[in-house]
Amino acid sequence: MSTLPALDVEGLSYAYGRKPALNRVSFQVEAGQCGILLGPNGAGKTTLFSLITHLYDSRDGSIRIAGHDIKTEPGQALAALGVVFQQPTLDLDLNVLQNLQYHAALHGLGRKEAARRIQEELERQGMFERAGEKVRQLNGGHRRRVEIARALLHQPRLLLLDEPTVGLDVPSRKAIVEYVHELTRTGKIAVLWATHLIDEIRDGDRLIVLHQGQVRATGGIDAVLEATGTATIGAAFERLTQQREAA
Length: 247
Ligand code: ATP
Known about the structure:
Strand 1 and strand 2 form a beta hairpin. The protein is of the alpha/beta class. The protein has 8 helices and 10 strands.
């Protein structure tokens, strides 16, 4: 397996007109790691995701997914990426299977391979029995599970999730947090999970704390606590996100 990081962001800046949204952002996430992109509202998380998914283009800095530069090798970079956007994107009037088949076809999976991968991913989340149900009939937690299954069909090296638990009840949130962390334990995939909720962090996660478009801290939980001289992630987050914009 390649030793290149699943995600390598280097010196990335972006502005909406003259308003800066990201300022020289650099960090890496390796296979087997769950990177938690932690930042308050307006920190720049969605902007960063829009750049990684190539919805926006940036003049400054680089993004490499599994070693492929998003600007110069977009096809290979995007083939190594699975995404769960903040806003749900399933077709409510199609059933679960149809939603997944459509996506598998977009990724060039043949019918047999698609059927096998769909079954595998739905079974892993206890959703295979629901394959024939219209998405409209599913609750929010189950819809999110289908979106995660869909993002994994083509076996990406990096899974991006933009605040995936927003609006879900506590048991659904917990199930999704645990499932995604479990995925990284195979060592085959890296995750970048954007959130402003510190209770979604688990031991072993790599934190990337973003505030006002800048990375204020990055590393394991212990490293961030040590760097901030705090005893809890809550206190560290508060300290890091109260700082004024660095020069
Ligand atoms: P949230 O958690 O609220 O989604 P976020 O961390 O995802 O916040 P962004 O949405 O990336 O943050 O916003 C970063 C900054 O860029 C904010 O100051 C925001 O007001 C600004 N911004 C975001 N989208 C636009 C846009 N289309 N035009 C102008 N400014 C924007």
